[in-house]
Amino acid sequence: MSEWITPAMLSFAATTPVLADKKKYPNFFRTVPSDNAVNPAVVKFLNFYNWSRVGTLTQDVQRFSEVRNDLTNELEKADIQIADTESFSNDPCVNVKKLKDNDVRIIIGQFDENLASKVFCCAYNLNMFGSKYQWIIPGWYQGNWWEQANSTNCTTKKLLTAMEGYISVDFEPLSARQVKGISGRTPKDYEREYSRELQQKGVEASKFHGFAYDGIWVIAKTLTRVMELLRVKQRKNTFHNFTVDDREVGKMVLDVMNETNFFGVTGQVMFRNGERMGTIKFNQFQEGQEVKVGEYNAIADVLDLINNSIRFQGVEPPKDRTFVRLQRRHINVPLYSILSTITILGMLMGGAFLFFNIKNRNHRLIKMSSPYMNNLIILGGMLSYASIFLFGLDGGFVSDKEFETLCTVRTWILIVGYTTAFGAMFAKTWRVHAIFKNVKMKKKIIKDQKLLIIVGGMLLIDLCILICWQIVDPLKRTVEEYSLECMQLGPCGLFPDSKPPDRGEL
């Protein structure tokens, strides 16, 4: 058997997405998920809450740009709209403002903890937090990072206010499943033993210790399996000289590593094109600390959120955009009811006066006051009252076609009613004027028939104008859009986020 060196390389801490390029690094494996591994988990999380419109805010360095580019591809595959993509180097406030101007509500951030404090300070000053917004950021920051990395003019209290409710995403350092793995230990057993060794040696813990431990098992299982295959091959070639070159052994090592499948302290250890299919955890910032709210299993492509653990600032998850709903602005029903009641009382009063006037028309005083003119005044007033009912009817009560007819009818009734009442009063006033203008004090009689002719003439003029109006330019229904208004069903930003342009009918 010739001496060989395996071409396979195994890392337990290299998370950069560059190493996923199999054309450049065909023999590279890692037990730790890459930075890109969180992207399918983020997409799954977005789909869970039906968020189909997001924005990205990325620190302008290669590590974050690569993750953002991969995330863009994942979002496009999932048919999720990227409303805005912003990158910044030092001051993120201009970019955060652009996200707000583009009505981005779900913001996926890729930046380190030093700039995270600046981002959330900008978010606080722009009021981009609370029930209307959801921030999703990396989850590998140090504990209480906002205290150590705060280089802004925002106080810690302001930062905590803006940070409340953010979701952080990172790989799970140790599995939450308490089952014995290939080492015969549960993840909890391993963690206790690791902590005990740290105390004895007085060294600091590493975030990647579990991946290093599982990496040793990957190497051990790979070498064991390769040796078994070589022995089997050697037995089959007992009658021939058995030789194997480095290239063949190297290929066997790669094949065996790609077939790796066991449960370790970091979860199920499997590779897909050299990439670790691990578990991604979701934490939420709640009242000053991060709380685990769920995890994503990349092998099964399953998102598991802990029941009632996620706390949104509103009564429900924020919406991914401002929803504009076109709706008609109707007459207020209680107001219409009150005015209709008053109108009915007015018409009843007018009817009572009309009855009284007709019944006592032969009474000397009534007869002297021109009862026919009085009746016309009452009838004109009652027609004007009737138009109030018609003006209160809108698209909520009648169809669009009926509404145009209604516009014409109510206009005619109001004009005819007003002219009848005003014409009768004008005729009576004119008669008094004509009588007292007689300086010779001769007896002058102006009968009601002449006054009726005056009223009839005024009505004839109105009818001619109305008929010409109807022929030349008939009334039509038009729609007028008003400015956006916030719905009164709850705080702006909750569902529905805002009230649409109300429509009035003319």
UniProtKB/TrEMBL annotation:
List GO molecular-function terms, semicolon-separated: G protein-coupled GABA receptor activity
Q: Kindly give the PROSITE patterns that the UniProt entry links to this protein.
A: G_PROTEIN_RECEP_F3_4
Q: Which UniProt keywords apply?
A: Cell membrane, G-protein coupled receptor, Glycoprotein, Membrane, Receptor, Signal, Transducer, Transmembrane, Transmembrane helix
The Gene Ontology biological process annotation of the record reads:
gamma-aminobutyric acid signaling pathway
Instruction: Give TM regions.
Output: 335-356, 376-397, 409-430, 451-472
Question: Any keyword Methyltransferase?
Answer: no
Its topology with respect to the membrane? Multi-pass membrane protein
Listed Gene3D superfamilies = 3.40.50.2300
Where is this gene product found? Answer: Cell membrane
Q: Which InterPro entries match?
A: ANF_lig-bd_rcpt, GPCR3_GABA-B, GPCR_3_C, GPCR_3_GABA_rcpt_B2, Peripla_BP_I
Annotated G-protein coupled receptors family 3 profile domain ranges read: 386-492
Q: Name one GO cellular component term.
A: G protein-coupled receptor heterodimeric complex
* Protein family according to the UniProt entry: Belongs to the G-protein coupled receptor 3 family. GABA-B receptor subfamily.
This chain belongs to the protein called Gamma-aminobutyric acid type B receptor subunit 2
Gene expressing this chain: GABBR2
